[in-house]
Automatic annotation (TrEMBL):
One of its GO terms (cellular component) is plasma membrane. It comes from Planosporangium flavigriseum. Coiled coil: none annotated. Residues 3-489 form the Major facilitator superfamily (MFS) profile domain. This is Major facilitator superfamily (MFS) profile domain-containing protein. The chain crosses the membrane at residues 39-57, 69-88, 94-118, 130-150, 156-175, 196-214, 220-241, 262-285, 297-319, 326-345, 351-374, 464-484. Its main location: membrane. It holds the Pfam family MFS_1. Belongs to the major facilitator superfamily. TCR/Tet family. Residues 501-524 have a biased composition (Low complexity). Keywords: Cell membrane, Membrane, Transmembrane, Transmembrane helix, Transport. It is found in: Cell membrane. InterPro entries: CarboxyPept-like_regulatory (IPR008969), MFS (IPR011701), MFS_dom (IPR020846), MFS_trans_sf (IPR036259). Residues 501-528, 769-793 are annotated as: Disordered.
Amino acid sequence: MEALSGLLLVLFVSMISITVVSTALPQIIGALGGTQSQYTWVVTAALLTATAATPIWGKLADLFSKKALVQVAIVIYILGSVLCGIVQNTPQLIAARAFQGLGMGGLQALVQVVIAAMIPPRERGRYNGYLGAVMAVATVGGPLLGGVIVDTSWLGWRWCFYVGVPFALIALVLLQKTLHLKTVRREGAQIDYVGAALIAAGVSVLLIWVTFVHHNFAWLSWQTAAMVGGGVVLLALAVLVEAKVKEPIVPLRIVVQRTPALAILASVAVGMAMFGGSVFLGQYFQIGRGYGPTKAGLLTTPMMGGVLVASTIAGLLITKSGKIKPYIVAGTIILVGGFVALSRIDHQTKLVYVGAGMALVGIGVGMTMQNLVLAVQNTVALRDLGAASGTVTFFRSLGGTIGVSVLGAVLADRVASDIPKRMAEAGIHIPAGGAGAKTSTLDLHALPQPIVTIIRAVYGDATAHIFLISAIIGLVGILAALALPRINLRSSVDLAQTAVAEPEPASAEPAPAAVEPEPVAEPARTSGTVVTGRVEGLDRRPVAGALMTVTDYPGHQVAREVSKADGSYRLELPSGGNYLLICAAENHQPLATMLTVGLGEVSRDIALAGASVVEGRVLQRGGEPVHGATVTLTDARGEVVGAAVTGPAGTYVLADLYPGEYTLTATAEHTLPVAQAVSVDGPGSHRYDVVLRSNATISGTVRSARSGRPVADASVMLVDGYGNVAGTMVTGDDGRYEFPGLLPGTYTLTASGYAPVASRVDLAGDRTEKDIALGEPGPAVPLGVSPADQGEG
């Protein structure tokens, strides 16, 4: 995975471009003479274009070369960063940030798509943990780096935009050398530019309305009606376009599925947390608390540290357990708890309390952000992987865009209304056009100290209000997470699910002649890319006649082979890259796994599990289930091929079996082992119930009737109720006898040595003790023994 470092570096570059500005933005806006509304739009512009571009990049990744698209996104990002560094006023900065956002959106979406294409589904939890960790490092280091740059006189705030350029260039070179993915070109592929434009326009209109309402016009006004109505109409048209076009930007078949729909809903809440929290926390510490950019960056460390630790640990645990939902649910609950804690802060709250609240928010974001994408990737068809990943990232970015814009508007409105009140309470009267006109700017150095003190208090107190709103929105994320179905990481690509997700003839039956022309086979003989190995069962026996099929990521067949008598196979591939290997054989479970190959020969052995199951119940003689019985299945060679312990209902299941003859054995405490032959004649379930016999015992001592001493060498015989001899033995010097392994019932016990004696024994418990007296005159009298008689002679 040499390309992984380049991909992680690309993600680091795109994320640090957001966070490096967060602590420096108050200084940047102050230097350019911007306002609070412009402060918000510097962030919103980049998020908006990144949001609009994300699904486009995702769809392009399904149609064209992923490597080329990553490189194009890096170039756009570099150009945008340079433009941001040379601007001379705030409107120019907003425009440059919008252009930079196109590249940022591409990098964030494509990294996830490429890694999903390289890594088998079962391992993606661990790698998504790495992605989350890199995002956390960028988010932790960004504010610190931005603060240091702004506080360093010989650098200045413009280097906040230049700092990502060297990293982007390094990533560009690194990926050119190490990233090797198969280039896919689909004839007639079309990009839904109209849908993308309508989505971007609709969202932009609504965000512009949120920014200017209440300040420039009333909530109930013709401007509100025009903007809200226009935004809704544009988005409705986008839905109509997406439903009709061949290659939609946001495939509605993905959005309407339960898991993606709920993941999208939760992603909006997480996006608001991730972007809104980081943006306004920096402003809180600088304007509300009066700290410098560097110290403000340090103070946000608890939140970013929480993201780092939580994303890494959650990714490892998900890979180990295969379960995704529990971590998403826990993450959303912790996220809301953190926002509730932050909703109680003001400009004088102890930093320890603020840090604890930020840490909770960070942990919540780390446990949910990447795992929501992972959940969707495990429920969609392979051909929709890019579009699905891009869609979830799109809505997460959309949530961030809405969060920054809406929360920024709420903060600006609160500040604008509270500052005059506080000044009036302090007896400060601002003449029209005087210094008070500057209170809408973020350049506090230009204001008198009494006014600065009031502004800091207002900003510090107003920030808590936007966190309360975030907590309320976060409740939606909790509900969405709870409603998610149980999601497990697939151990291989789910072909059946792919067919369901895309029930079109082209995807149900690959047609290499129509999609991949015959010349595709020619490079296979010259590329030197060969996969060899053996197909075996879990019992290490070769599987002959196994059908091997290899497809590329769009689902086009590139190779096909049948395993030989010894299970060996040889596949020639067109080139190095990532492929899907499908193996199917009679009486075996099919297997699908990912292949990552370069030039040369690669060896890959395949183990196929059987498709047969032996199941049933272990019962007592009266039909009651036996809990905790051990069931073992051995084959004709005496090898154990399966074992299970019965549950409360006495059930057992032994899977992954092949046709053949087996011996089924069951045993439990206080019972005799039972073995029986079972036959598995083909795939499917074979039911065998087992009845265990109680392991009861009759024992006692043979004594002389005259002296009461034990009688040695007495012959003792036990006969069951059907007249069958259940056992015989001769007593030792102690006169003891014992007949174990008996079923409940009535027995006749006969002892001889002197005069023969016969006794009746009713065996009803696990053990019955019956002493026998020999040598008494007269006939023996039959005796009835019940559990209450145990131990008596």
